[in-house]
Q: What sequence folds into this?
């Protein structure tokens, strides 16, 4: 028999319901924080694993910490509208904010030491939708899963164990292809001479509702000048920033956006595997870099180039990386923006 709303039995039932809701919320929090399963990979652990031996550079991105911001345009030629109804593929010109960067957590790394270079882009469309992408110049990623990426960071940090990387490579043979690229690919003289690749795959949907799984690349208009190891050292620790600022100061710099369409059976969930060369490729338009912007306090500072920020007409695929990256970039963003006092700010005299 039900008690009256204000009866003692009804009050006890209300308290039980409240206690159950609170317990469920606490359990959800504890699970999300990873306290129930210390072995589970969390975004915070992934980001912690990237820290150099002396700790992270406070106020900076926890990876790709060194970089230089720019603004420009994406001139769409309309070609990729057959693949995706995203507004940025309708012929026209769209504003871009982007960043050239080095794949290292060391904000003071020498340009001659960073094997992997990156290009990050954000395009805002007139309908308010947005596309963000963070690409690298390697043609493949070193590992097949976010878990393996975490284990790779741990192996790299084990300076006390000479076998750590050997054991990692034995358990993750896919890293061999990346190693071969890193050991043999030329080092170019400029961010403007590199090709940048999404490596992760995404699903494009066109106006008829047809889905295709794709990857994309930005292919430079200028011919690369390859540097020898000696030439590279002679250029100095910060030659890439000086070079790109000088080039963009002289004339806009351009890359073609090429979209590659997967065939059935291609490894869409594994960025350590290239797709065969003969896959259908569609030119979507041209990235035009028009102005170098200040890195401290410039338009990139409070931007997180989260690869899951996608307009209607694009979505993530079965590739597990974009979701893991989104969560890790958010942790990095929250940490670095909370460390504002450690970040070099631009003053009347320049960066301090
Ligand atoms: C699970 C794997 C990965 C982790 C944990 C990771 C982690 C990070 C973190 C923490 C940042 C700094 C984010 C910020 O503070 O805004 C970052 C930036 C970046 N990452 Fe990754 N990353 C991963 C995979 C990749 C892949 C697959 C690519 C390229 C194909 C990539 C390219 C970049 C680039 C270009 C940036 C610089 C973005 C910027 O300019 O803000 N990352 N990454």
A:
């Amino acid at each position: 028999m039900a008690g009256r709303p204000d009866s003692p039995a009804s009050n006890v039932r209300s308290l039980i319901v409240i206690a159950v809701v609170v317990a469920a919320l606490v359990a959800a929090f504890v699970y999300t924080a990873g306290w129930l399963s210390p072995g589970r990979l969390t975004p915070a652990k992934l980001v912690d694993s990237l820290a150099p031996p002396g700790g992270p550079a406070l106020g900076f991105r926890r990876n790709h910490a060194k970089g230089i911001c720019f603004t420009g345009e994406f001139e769409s030629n309309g070609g990729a509208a057959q693949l995706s109804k995203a507004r940025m593929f309708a012929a026209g010109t769209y504003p871009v904010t982007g960043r050239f960067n080095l794949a290292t957590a060391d904000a003071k790394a020498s340009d001659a030491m960073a094997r992997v270079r990156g290009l990050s882009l954000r395009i805002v469309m007139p309908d308010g939708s947005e596309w963000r992408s963070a690409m690298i110049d390697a043609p493949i990623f070193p590992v097949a899963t976010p878990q393996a990426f975490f284990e790779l960071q741990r192996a790299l940090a084990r300076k006390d164990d000479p076998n750590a990387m050997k054991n990692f490579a034995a358990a993750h043979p896919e890293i061999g292809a990346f190693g071969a690229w890193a050991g043999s690919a030329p080092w170019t003289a400029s961010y403007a001479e590199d090709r940048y690749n999404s490596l992760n795959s995404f699903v494009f949907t066109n106006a008829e509702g047809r889905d295709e799984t794709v990857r994309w690349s930005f292919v430079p208009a200028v011919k690369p000048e390859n540097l020898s190891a000696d030439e590279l050292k002679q250029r100095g620790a910060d030659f890439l920033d000086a070079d790109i600022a000088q080039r963009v100061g002289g004339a806009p710099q351009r890359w073609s956006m090429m979209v590659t369409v997967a065939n059935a059976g291609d490894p869409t969930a594994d960025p350590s595997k290239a797709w065969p060369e003969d896959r259908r490729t569609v030119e979507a338009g041209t990235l035009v870099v028009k102005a170098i912007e200040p890195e401290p306090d410039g338009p990139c500072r409070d931007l997180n180039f989260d690869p899951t920020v996608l307009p209607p007409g694009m979505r993530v695929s079965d590739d597990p990386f974009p979701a893991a990256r989104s969560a890790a970039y958010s942790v990095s963003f929250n940490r670095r923006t909370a460390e504002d006092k450690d970040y070099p700010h631009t003053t009347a005299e320049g960066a301090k």
In short: Helices lie at 8-32, 43-49, 146-157, 164-171, 175-184, 229-234, 239-250, 321-338. The two ends are 73 Å apart (CA to CA). Residues 9-38 form one domain.
